[in-house]
Amino acid sequence: MLGSRIEFTFLDDPQWRSNITSISFTNSRDNNMERLNDIDRNISGLLRYLQGISRGSYGLSGTWVWTIKATGYADTIVTVKVQ
After folding, report:
1. Which of 26, 38, 59, 62 has the fewest CB atoms within 10 Å, i.e. the most exposed one?
2. How many C-beta atoms surround the C-beta of residue 6 within 10 A?
3. Domains in the chain: boundaries
4. Which of 37, 6, 26, 38 is nearest to 77 (CA)?
5. What is the mean pLDDT of residues 47-75?
């Protein structure tokens, strides 16, 4: 996953997708939050971060918690375990 694009696939809800305001992630080991800005949300059922995630950002093992915020919707939480 390091250096590669991050993609989230989902059953599409065009309203939710168009109202996304931010995507961020934290790691259970260091608890630093990083916000992603360059998000492509133009494809039905797909969110894509347009730049690769660097080793410094996503290189630690542990539990990563992704938070997707959209105006008018509850936060979407995605948990990823990296070993």
Report:
1. 38
2. 19
3. 6-82
4. 26
5. 77
CB 51 within 8 A of CB 38: yes
Q: Identify the band that residue 33 occupies on the pLDDT scale cut at 50, 70 and 90.
A: low
C-beta of residue 51 within 8 angstroms of C-beta of residue 61: no
CATH topology of domain 6-82: Immunoglobulin-like (2.60.40)
Q: Which residues contact 77 (CB under 8 A, 6 or more apart)?
A: 65, 66, 67, 68
Q: Could you say which DSSP state residue 58 is in?
A: H
Cα first-last separation, the chain? 11
CB-based contact 22:35 (threshold 8 Å): yes
A 10 A CB-CB count for 47 gives 20
